[in-house]
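Model it.
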Amino acid sequence: MDFKQLRYFLAVVDEGTISSAARRIPIAQPALTRQLHMLEEDLGFQLFHRTHQGIILTAAGTSFYKNTQVLLEDFETIKQQAKNIANGQYGSLRIGITPIHHWIPNITRLLNKFRKQHPDVELFIEPRLSGSQIEAIHNNRQDIGIMFLHPETQPELRSQCLYKDHMVLVTSKNSSLAQNPPTCLADLNNEDFIWFKRDSTPSSYDKLHQSFKESGFIPNIVQECSDNTTMRSLVSAGMGCTLLPALTMTDAPKNLVSYRIPDLTLELPLMLVWHPLYLNSTNKCSTCGF
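Modeled.
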């Protein structure tokens, strides 16, 4: 017994005669009759009473017909689901996004596009700092990350640049720096400096400190924080100054101002990141839609 014979059986019942079913399939009538006999032999019971007017299902045939319909429908569903999974169009996708980037137009457009193209995929979006995202991707607890990352620092990961940001000096409107903005990083040497912990964004932390060293800037760090929002709050409270991605100033408190410092030219690439072991890079576009 195979699915072909089951489909032949359903066609005969639906058409009411073997001849009509043979024309619909299409298949030669003797061949169809032979397939039905083989099915009955395999099952071990009779499916039809054959009459001059057509076929009449036996009691066993009636039960078998109903269950066969369910079986073939389930089989088509299972087959389609497997096909969707192979094409990255089914299941779930775990996405981490650094907290300040949820509402960037580039990101929201990507998520909306993905939702329209892959409505059967359930999205799990979790705010995470870059450092914890990298750890989660390595441990297969996250499929894709949207984070600040310099690719050369994580050569085992695959990435694609979505957006490039730059750093700005952030200080309160009432500070001396607001009255006399610095012309270079070294001008900040005597200022109280609010900074982020290295484990928040390791690659950016190391790159920035290398830029500081090259520019003769030794930050006087008076407070370390885990996220940009806390850093802004402390600067707003007058505890010092800091350097933040320019994007973070979009919704900053009104008593904060920002300045571009000429010798701080390091770009912050916002990357789409995944691990090739857990998310096949050859199927990246069809899987994540990005």
